[in-house]
């Protein structure tokens, strides 16, 4: 039996696995191969990794995990998390096997719900973005527009010292990347820019919160406390899929996800220790 099964191998899951490995806890890390930041060319605003491709970041993290023999990494998706009476959980995998565990740490992230706009999916993460902290600097001295949304005026103010020009456009109806830039159409009006910032909704990328009946926030994120504990004992959550009670909105950040993964891993370890007969000697 594993002490913890970590589902999801983005920044939160990888950090959680490393934290548990350093404490020599039998841990299984499940990597489905699906990542929210897969469309982007590079991660930014991350110390020592600014500008590094996200795939390379994951590769380096997995290399580091090899130092911890108690961590197993499997390129297998989890399908179902079953409660195992009072003895923990069983995670059913896509290969037909099951992994019994004392605790589960969910790090499967969110899925962006892109609007049905021609060209949006193709340009997402390339010339169309959501987070100015992640992608704003790369548009220094260039043309930027922001699609009208409640935060549009704040984004314009953020870009004033960065972009050559920044404007707000009505709801975008079509996008096309051409040699002279990104053609952003709003009805009959089209502007040519270098970057577009939009607000998109997101949903849980995996079904486990619903399967387990976890308490949710109005934002669609799993409700957790400041250390990643969910409403179900033994189930922990970290990364952008979760939102603590002292946060007004989820944080979409590689560093924040890794930090949350570390905290949730320490909470999962405490849960395991309190459920096992641990003998303390002096």
Q: What is shown here, in short?
A:
By secondary structure, the chain is α/β, with parallel strands linked by helices. It has helices at 11-22, 54-65, 120-123, 132-135, 152-159, 208-212, 254-275; strands at 2-7, 27-30, 71-74, 78-83, 89-93, 98-106, 110-113, 128-129, 143-147, 165-169, 174-178, 181-186, 189-193, 195-197, 201-204, 222-224, 235-237, 242-244.
Characterization of this structure:
There is one protein chain. Helices cover 24% and strands 29% of the residues. It has 282 residues and is of the alpha/beta class. The strands form 5 sheets. Strands 1, 2, 3, 4, 5, 6 and 17 form a 7-stranded mixed β-sheet that branches. The protein has a 4-stranded parallel β-sheet with strand order 8-14-9-10, with helices on one face. It has a 3-stranded antiparallel β-sheet with strand order 11-12-13, with no helix packed on it. It is elongated.
Question: Which terms summarize this structure?
Answer:
282 residues; alpha/beta; FAD/NAD(P)-binding domain; 7-stranded mixed beta sheet; elongated
Helices and strands in order:
Blueprint: E1 2-7, H1 11-22, E2 27-30, H2 54-65, E3 71-74, E4 78-83, E5 89-93, E6 98-106, E7 110-113, H3 120-123, E8 128-129, H4 132-135, E9 143-147, H5 152-159, E10 165-169, E11 174-178, E12 181-186, E13 189-193, E14 195-197, E15 201-204, H6 208-212, E16 222-224, E17 235-237, E18 242-244, H7 254-275
Parallel strand pairs: 1-2, 1-6, 2-3, 6-17, 8-14, 9-10, 9-14, 16-18
Antiparallel strand pairs: 4-5, 5-6, 7-15, 11-12, 12-13
Helix pairs in contact: 1-2, 1-7
């Amino acid at each position: 039996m594993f002490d913890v099964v970590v589902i999801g191998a983005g920044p939160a899951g990888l950090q959680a696995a490393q934290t548990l490995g350093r404490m020599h806890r039998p841990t299984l890390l499940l990597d489905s191969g699906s990542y929210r930041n897969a469309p982007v060319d590079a991660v930014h605003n991350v110390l020592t990794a600014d500008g590094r491709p996200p795939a390379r970041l994951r590769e380096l993290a997995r290399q580091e995990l090899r130092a911890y023999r108690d961590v197993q990494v499997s390129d297998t998706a989890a399908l179902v998390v079953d409660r195992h009476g009072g003895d923990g959980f069983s995670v059913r995998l896509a290969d037909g096997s099951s992994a019994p565990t004392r605790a589960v740490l969910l790090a499967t992230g969110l899925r962006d719900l892109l609007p049905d706009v021609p060209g949006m999916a193709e340009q997402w993460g390339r010339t169309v973005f959501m987070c100015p902290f992640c992608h704003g600097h790369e548009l220094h001295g260039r043309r930027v527009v922001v699609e009208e949304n409640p935060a549009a005026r704040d984004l314009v103010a953020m870009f004033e010292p960065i972009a050559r020009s920044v404007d707000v456009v009505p709801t975008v109806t079509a996008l096309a990347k051409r040699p002279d830039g990104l053609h952003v159409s709003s009805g009959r009006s089209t502007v040519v820019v270098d970057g577009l910032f939009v607000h998109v909704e997101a949903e849980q990328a995996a079904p486990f919160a619903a399967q387990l009946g976890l308490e949710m926030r109005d934002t669609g994120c799993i409700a957790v406390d400041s250390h990643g504990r969910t409403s179900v004992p033994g189930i922990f959550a970290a990364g952008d899929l979760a939102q603590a009670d002292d946060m007004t909105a989820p944080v979409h950040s590689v560093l924040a996800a890794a930090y949350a993964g570390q905290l949730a891993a320490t909470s999962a370890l405490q849960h395991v220790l309190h459920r096992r007969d641990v003998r303390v000697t002096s």
